[in-house]
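Dear colleague,

Thank you for sharing your sequence with our group. We've completed the structure prediction you requested, and as agreed, I am returning the results in plain text so they can be pasted directly into your records. Please verify that the sequence below matches your submission; if there's any discrepancy, let me know and we will rerun it promptly.
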Amino acid sequence: MRHYSHMRITDAIYRNVRAAVVLLERESAAAFAPFDLTLAQFGALDVTSQNAGLRMGELADRLLIDDSTTTRIVTSLVDRGLVERTRDPIDGRAFVLTVTAVGEKLRTQAAQAHSAMLADRLSVLAKEDQTSLESGLRTLIDSLYPERTSA
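Please find the predicted structure tokens below.
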């Protein structure tokens, strides 16, 4: 086991988390490519599927992206018939999102491919290490963004 000073361990954690995210995003992009989905499009499709009637601004908040990026992503999903964007019946200025049947089928297929890829890549970690990693990252995320709704 390596011995680090406090500053070195925090720097090492940051570098390793960042590298893992970059590498897993590359693997994720490859997993979604056969479905003609980007990582961002899948994220929007997945969150919308779990939250029917979600407003555009709420989707942006959950994805941690700005409104204009959300609009571009959602427009691409609407153009493909994967998501419907309709006026909010309560506030006509806002739009709500619903995944179509075609979108849900594609989301399910893409999610299965992505889950299989993640299971394969994370299999290098013992189950206990996977659990500890998830718990530690959840604690860190909650402390950095306490108002975020768990996805």
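Summary note from our side: The mean pLDDT is 92.

Kind regards,
the structure core
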